[in-house]
Amino acid sequence: MTQTRHTETSQTERIIAVFGGSGVPEGTPVYEDTRRLGRLLAQAGYAVMNGGYYGTMAAVSQGAHQAGGRVIGVTVPLFNLQPNPWLDEERRMDAYLPRLIHLTTVPDGYVAVQGGIGTLTEVSVVWSLLQTGSIPRRPFILLGEHWTRILDVYRRETTMKESDLALAQVVATPEEAVDILRRQLR
Predict the structure, then answer these.
(1) How far apart are alpha carbons 101 and 11 in whole angstroms?
(2) b vs e for 144-155, b when ≥16 Cβ sit within 10 Å of the residue's Cβ?
(3) What is the CATH T-level fold of the domain 12-184, as seen in this structure?
(4) Nearest 10 degrees: Cα torsion 59, 64, 65, 71
(5) Is the pTM of this model over 0.70?
(6) What is the pLDDT of residues 141-174, one digit of tens each?
(7) In the chain, where the domains are located
(8) Most buried of the four, 89, 104, 130, 170, by CB within 10 Å?
């Protein structure tokens, strides 16, 4: 069961999910890039969806909110945390798996920034859904040069095909991410 606070999503609104770590401190380059990403997404007319808590989730929420955008947080009682204060809507799921399914199937595009196990889980689920055709093709962007090194490890240490790796696009800046979203979501 979900619990929604504030407004519902319109039929025409484009939603971009941003995945990233809760432990990223304010003032760090990753935090500031993620806040800029939120601002740019809002300025481009996208609603932002994220896990609703702190670290990069707060950064993207703050950036989008301050630019007049709509911010959706998908939360779960498991974490026993208050959502960040920049959400316009909280979609509260009963458990972790429904939250993961919502975050990885509802959005029109995805941007992942630096994070931990949760971020890697979200990225892997989206990747698998795209690779198997379980969801229609959507922009899937990995923001930050660290992703290039991670993909290099995947190339060396897994049996992933180049066509599977190509489902994700690595970019260095929030501006590049938003440019790809604009082009691919026309």
Answers:
(1) 20
(2) beebeeeeeeee
(3) Rossmann fold (3.40.50)
(4) -90
(5) yes
(6) 999 999 999 999 999 999 999 999 999 999 999 9
(7) 12-184
(8) 104
